[in-house]
């Protein structure tokens, strides 16, 4: 039985997508608890609103991920996954340190 579609993608692609979702969710929780965005680029995009700015940034990240997939640059995606793993860990630390945490 031949695997098709999303099942044929390398594991790094699944990890990249999962980390994008985790980054989005942990950032939104951080905002709800009073944290602010550290990245000047994302902060600029958030003038349209926090959720809109985050969604724009995720669209850009997914476009870059799509370029990496299309050009077969899975090694680059691995490095980007390390970066987003660090961001998610940072977001979790910010959430745990927030005074109004859950």
Distance between the termini: 46 Å
> Roughly how many Å is the radius of gyration?
15 Å
How many structural domains can be distinguished in the coordinates?
1
Helix content: over 70%
Give a quick account of the main beta sheet: strands, pairing sense, barrel closure.
Answer: none
Mean pLDDT: 87
Task: Report the count of strand segments.
Answer: 0
Uncertain ranges: none
Structural overview:
It contains 4 helices and no strands. By secondary structure, it is mainly α. α1 (11-32) packs antiparallel against α3 (50-70). The chain is globular, with a radius of gyration of 15 Å.
Draw up the topology in text.
Layout: H1 11-32, H2 40-45, H3 50-70, H4 74-97
Helix pairs in contact: 1-3, 1-4
Describe the structure in brief.
This protein starts with 10 loop residues before the first helix and ends in a 5-residue tail after the last helix. The chain has one domain (10-97).
Keywords summarizing the entry:
102 residues, mainly alpha, 4 helices, 72% helix, 0% strand
């Amino acid at each position: 039985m031949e695997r098709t579609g999303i099942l044929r993608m390398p594991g790094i692609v699944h990890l990249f997508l999962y980390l994008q979702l985790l980054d989005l969710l942990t950032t939104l929780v951080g905002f709800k608890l009073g944290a602010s965005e550290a990245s000047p680029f994302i902060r600029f995009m958030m003038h349209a609103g926090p959720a809109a700015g985050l969604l724009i940034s995720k669209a850009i990240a997914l476009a870059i991920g799509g370029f990496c997939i299309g050009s077969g640059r899975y090694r680059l995606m691995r490095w980007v996954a390390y970066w987003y793993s660090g961001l998610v860990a940072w977001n979790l630390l910010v959430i745990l340190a927030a005074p109004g945490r859950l």
